[in-house]
Amino acid sequence: MLDKKPTTIGRMFDRIAFRYDLVNRVLSLCIDQTWRRITVRNLAVEPGDRVLDIATGTGDLALRVLQSEKTCRVVGIDLSQEMLAIASFKSGRRGFSDRSFFVNGDALLLPFHDGVFDKAMVAFGIRNMNNIEAFLDELHRVITVGGRAAILEFSLPSNPPVRRLYLVYLTRILPLVGRFLSGDDGAYRYLTDSVREFSSPSLLREFMRKRGFDLIRSRHLFFGIAHLFILARKQQPTEMI
Ligand SMILES: C[S@@+](CC[C@H](N)C(=O)[O-])C[C@H]1O[C@@H](n2cnc3c(N)ncnc32)[C@H](O)[C@@H]1O
């Protein structure tokens, strides 16, 4: 079992924060940005929306939302101070400081009142959480009834030859390139292991339904290397008169 304690995860991302964006672009050949674009399009942010970006990291998803809808406001939350510092810097450079706010905190104990966000999203973060169901409860709690959430995460392709090929990349090439570019051995080994051991999309769908979400969309991206879920917090059952 991988160590997914918040302090361990936060420190690991602190160590690689400076090189995180570069390594992402190289390892994914920039496809990660296409996935984030698809995620934002499916989230359908509306004017004035309050959006929460959970495990915001260096803020790439948050910035896409701020760019796509000029009157929404975004709060990004993450365990890693160093990742947040970069997110905040990038947001300021793009002129989004007055509509973005970055806070240090744990996705399993979100420091927000119930139902304060119209939309919420998490990209490549849910895999790092040590209790997926507790996280889904928190996600459900902080969005408004009928509000939408997007979850983007790595998955393993189901087609056997593609899966075999991808596993070679994941276990042999990715850790080497990650270590070379970031100077950190453990973080990119952790990436490989966490992708391999993470729950399948079908199990995640099951969890999501059980935790009170309607599943609006569930789709593979790039041969199943990633998966996008679009959820809505269920309307409250109508009271009997
Ligand atoms: C792979 S990065 C993804 C960052 C960003 N969402 C992106 O698309 O590039 C994962 C991020 O999740 C954060 N994270 C992991 N577990 C978390 C938790 N329980 N609460 C808040 N942030 C968490 C890490 O600190 C890290 O910045």
Q: What tags apply to this protein structure?
A:
7 strands; binds S-adenosylmethionine; 7-stranded mixed β-sheet; 241 residues; Rossmann fold; globular; alpha/beta; 8 helices; single chain
Q: How would you describe this structure to a colleague?
A:
The protein is of the alpha/beta class and 241 residues long. It has one domain: Rossmann fold (3-Layer(aba) Sandwich), CATH 3.40.50. It contains 8 helices and 7 strands. It is globular and about 45 Å long. The mean pLDDT is 95. S-adenosylmethionine binds next to helix 1, helix 3 and strand 2.
Q: What's a concise summary of this model?
A:
By secondary structure, this protein is of the alpha/beta class. It has helices at 6-28, 31-43, 60-68, 81-93, 132-142, 160-182, 185-197, 201-210, and strands spanning 50-54, 73-78, 100-104, 117-123, 143-154, 213-221, 226-233.
Helical residue percent band: 40-55%
Please give the largest β-sheet: 7 strands, mixed
Beta-strand residue fraction: 15-25%
Please state the CA-atom Rg, rounded to the nearest Å. Answer: 17 Å
**CATH homology-level superfamily:** Vaccinia Virus protein VP39
CATH fold group: Rossmann fold
Q: Please identify, by name, the CATH architecture.
A: 3-Layer(aba) Sandwich
pLDDT below 50 for ≥5 consecutive residues: which ranges? none
Mean pLDDT: 95
What number of structural domains do the residues give? Answer: 1
Question: What string, H for helix and E for strand, traces the elements in order?
Answer: HHEHEHEEHEHHHEE
* Tally of individual helices: 8
